[in-house]
Amino acid sequence: MNHLPVEKTGNGSDWQQCKNVLCFRPDNMGDILMTTPAFRALKASVPGRKLTLLTSSAGAAIAPFIPEIDAIIPFDLPWVQTASRQKRDELPQLIRRLKEEAFDAAIIFNVQSQNPLPSALICYVAEIPRTLGYCRENPYELLTNWVPDPEVIVASRHEVERQLALVTSVGSTTTDKRLSLTVTDLARKEALENLARAGLRLTDPWLVLHAGVSEVKRRFGAEQYIRAARQLRTETGFQIVLTCSQSEWQYVETIRQGIGEKAYNLAGRLSLETFIGLIAQAPVLIANNTGPVHMAAALGTPVVVLYAMTNPQHTPWMVPNRVLYFEVPKQLRSRNRLLQHFPEPAEPRASAEGIVQAVYDLLGQQQTVPSAALTE
């Protein structure tokens, strides 16, 4: 391997020579999207730099639509919660592959509540000469560029800002801090065709309600979604497009039946590319705090997010939005101590009335929801 010599200065000046960089982000779609401004900074700072993203199988699904990413290594690591698991004996295969790629450097992107050292150890064993990451304790040889993590108990800044600050420490900056996501004309066309086939009238008002989540603890109550959707349909004629994964089809179907007419269940019927085309054209998205919220932010679609009080730093970025908070049921709360301290006040609290008013606010409509409007 012909690695560049490592300068242990800690100031990152030698990173400007690094053309082949591994971005270690083994998380979900939303985490990947919130890291895209940092990817942009890395690409912009060194002409010809190649970025390879090591991510989970879920993250790998969105990566082809991120223009800053040149290559993808999908791998579900045992210290990250994912829907699937690699076999134990596949980890040495991953390390061999990373060695063969002869990366000049690796960057460990992690949220404040995650420990970066397992990922750093993988890079160390793979003989990647430079590694950058946040860490609360001294990582010694595992990180050549250690940024002491200032967010010890509670995340105090947005995830986008956290990752931009990390790459800035090695000289990579950008003035464009928007999220990146590519949407094609074909995806837009196919999305509208799917709506028409489902029976939706494209000339009448519509919105998207994405009730699905990757973790049950972040799922807002179906009954309140139903009440809000029925109110929107009655007062403004909104058609409700319900989306979700195929595995949650029955849950979404329950919501559709509760709403009644002008509600359409598209759960599991759209490819990811077509789903992106749908979100790009939606007048507004209503969703739990999950991946589609960050897709909407990247595409400029206004979003109402029902935000479970877990990670506080994942609110919609640089897009018109309303955030409505709700507490995670006790039996579903994380055992991670760093996720048990949500900053207060977490206001306004989520409710059916709040959803309806948020939609009116974002769409510039003048209706005001009476305090008892949704008590039926």
Structural notes for this entry:
The chain is of the alpha/beta class and 376 residues long. The chain has 2 domains: 13-168, Rossmann fold (3-Layer(aba) Sandwich); 185-362, 3-Layer(aba) Sandwich (Rossmann fold), CATH 3.40.50.2000. Helices cover 32% and strands 15% of the residues. It contains 12 helices and 12 strands. It has helices at 29-34, 36-45, 57-62, 91-101, 117-125, 159-168, 185-198, 222-236, 249-259, 272-281, 291-299, 352-362; strands spanning 20-24, 50-55, 71-74, 105-108, 131-135, 145-148, 206-210, 239-243, 263-265, 285-288, 303-308, 321-326. Strands 3-2-1-4-5-6 form a 6-stranded parallel beta sheet, with helices on both faces. Strands 9-8-7-10-11-12 form a 6-stranded parallel beta sheet, sandwiched between helices. The longest helix has 15 residues, at 222-236. It is globular. Residues 1-9 and 368-376 have low confidence and may be disordered.
Based on the model shown, name its key terms.
376 residues, alpha/beta, Rossmann fold, six-stranded parallel beta sheet, 12 strands, 15% strand, disordered N terminus, disordered C terminus
CATH superfamily of the largest domain: Glycogen Phosphorylase B
CATH class of the largest domain: Alpha Beta
In DSSP terms (H or I, runs of 4 or more residues), the helix count works out at 12
Strand-pairing-aware structural class = alpha/beta
